Amino acid sequence: MKINTTNYSSFPDQVVPESVKNGFEYGSQVGQAIEGQWFRNYRGGMGSAERNGGYAVNMNTFHTLRLYARAEQPVQKYKDELSINGDLSYLNLDWKPVPVVPKFLDIVVNGLTEKEYNVRA
After folding, report:
1. Bridge partners, 87 (sequence order)
2. pTM for this prediction
3. Residue 87 backbone dihedrals phi, psi, to 5 degrees
4. Which of 8, 22, 62, 99 has its CB surrounded by the most CB atoms within 10 Å?
5. How many whole angstroms separate alpha carbon 33 and alpha carbon 95?
6. What's the structural domain count of the chain?
7. Is residue 6 part of a domain?
8. What residues make up the domain containing 105?
9. How far apart are CA 25 and CA 6, in angstroms?
């Protein structure tokens, strides 16, 4: 069996009989192609996740979004926007981010836990 290698894919040829696809070797090649795409900084493919190493990109994005959700994001970009030639002495601001997500989380959770019925066993 040959692996169809192009600029965009290292997956095995899909136009093979079902008996070949049911074999261990074909499944192993598909698994190795997926691993190469996500964990080895795969440079082929069309999407940005594949172009930049999908797993690392998703992990970094998740970490950044988690920081924003906990109101722990870096505030330097906000300081850069408000400073004049790097001078922040005229601003008397608390630079601690306001945690907005926990408020909405509480609203959603409380809405889900409202019980409109009584269970009798």
Report:
1. 84
2. 0.47
3. -95, 120
4. 99
5. 46
6. 1
7. no
8. 18-113
9. 20
Cα gap 44→5, rounded to integer Å: 11
Q: How many residues does this entry show for the chain?
A: 121
Selection from 38, 33, 44 nearest residue 59 by Cα: 38
- How do residues 48-105 score in pLDDT, each as one tens digit? 444 556 777 888 889 999 998 888 888 888 888 888 887 888 778 888 888 887 788 7
> Residue 2 corresponds to which tokens in the numbers above?
């040959």
Is residue 68, in this structure, part of any structural domain at all? yes
Is-contact 52 80, C-beta < 8 A?
Answer: no
85: left (phi over 0), alpha (psi -120 to 50) or beta: left
Please report whether residue 87 resides in a domain: yes
Q: How far apart are CA 111 and CA 29, in angstroms?
A: 47
What residues contact 41, with CB distance under 8 A and at least 6 apart? Answer: 52, 53, 56
